[in-house]
Amino acid sequence: MPDIADRLKAAREGLGLSQQAMAEHCGVTSRSQRNYETGERQPDALYLARLVELGVDVMYVLTGEPTGAQPATDASEQLLLENYRRCALPAKQNLLQNSVLLAAGMGAAQPPAAAKSKAAATASGMHMSNVGDGNVQVGSVSGGLNVSAPRKRSTAKPKEK
Fold first, then answer.
1. Using an 8 Å Cβ cutoff, are 12 and 37 in contact?
2. Computed over its alpha carbons, how large is the radius of gyration of the chain?
């Protein structure tokens, strides 16, 4: 039976994240992430709370039993979740990318065959790209909204002018 380390590694891989990306999101070093996945160390509560932000079922990671704390609200949500779980990583990334766009009111990405040319997309001022580790960048030529794992916030005070 898989242990915490195995379930944690499986959760990371299921999200399509590298050990570095998972470590950054959860506020630990890459070495700590590696130690958690090999069973040399056990994650603390803050790390586990940050896993929840990524959508990881922490009760499953800890106990091997999935939690029923957040059931689907209706049959269509349950179907969406079940289908997502059956998808290969590239399809999961595509679904995540489209969900970000739809939630932002931008419309789903077009399949490659129907997509605009690069010049036309640039002329419209919007672009979208998969920036690796399951992250999606959506934005304009002048700047974008990077929808990815949150980075640590700086505690340094801004310099006074």
1. yes
2. 18
- In the chain the first and final C-alpha atoms are separated, in Å, by 59
Look at residue 39 and give its three-state secondary structure. coil
pTM for this model (two decimals): 0.44
Distance CA 83, CA 8 (A): 22
DSSP string of 51-81?
HHHTT--HHHHHHSS---SS--SSHHHHHHH
pLDDT, tens only, 37-80: 999 999 998 999 999 888 898 888 988 888 765 566 778 888 88
Residue 154, both tokens: 């700086």
Nearest to 100 by CA among 70, 128, 71: 128
Cβ-contact 20, 135 below 8 angstroms: no
